Amino acid sequence: MRSQNSEVRIQNGGSRTLLFWILNSVFCILLPPFWILTSAFCILFLAFSIPLFPEIIDRIVITVANQVITQSQVDEELRVTAFLNREKLDLSADAKKQAASRLIEQALIKREMDLSRYPLPELKDTGESLQALKAM
After folding, report:
1. CA 124 remoteness from chain centre
2. Which of 71, 73, 83, 132 supports an S-S bond with 59, CB 3.0-4.6 Å?
3. What is the C-alpha to C-alpha distance for residues 64 and 60, in angstroms, rounded to an integer?
4. Across the chain, where does the E strand assignment appear?
5. Cα distance between residue 72 and residue 90, in whole Å
6. Inter-residue contact 100 to 62 (CB < 8 Å)
């Protein structure tokens, strides 16, 4: 029984083997140029994706203990405060100093809460505060 099954497989697999041999020879002919083009593309992509000159992404304005406050955080504080107070955006040095002092206070309070293990509010309390804020 086994020998008959294996003979049937050989007879039925003959056309598949020929097709496999043809495809294999075609890929062997076409594959080296494909890899050369792919390698060249990868090298060019890597060469042009690496910045040649350093860029400043963000600046450290203040350090509080082991935490930093960046320029973008100060700018965000200014913009959010102006938006919530429905005021015109003020980017003066005095406004930036006030925003930085608020961020310093927030960082110190957060650090003190972490050190003293201050209990977090329950979820229902925060929901009530959110509803009160939305009603404003």
Report:
1. 32
2. 71
3. 11
4. 60-64, 67-70
5. 15
6. yes
Domain parsing of the chain, residue ranges: 1-53, 60-135
Place of tokens 């097709």: 19
> What tokens were used for 62?
């203040």
Q: Is pTM beyond 0.85 here?
A: no
Distance CA 11, CA 3 (A): 12
CA distances from 135 to 42, 123, 126, 129, 131 (A): 56, 19, 14, 10, 6
State the Cα torsion 44-49-55-59 to the nearest 10°: -160
What does the alpha-carbon distance between residue 136 and residue 132 come to, in Å, rounded to a whole number? 7
What pLDDT, in 10s, does the model give residues 57-99?
Answer: 889 999 988 889 999 999 999 999 999 999 999 999 999 999 9
Q: How far apart are CA 31 and CA 119, in angstroms?
A: 64
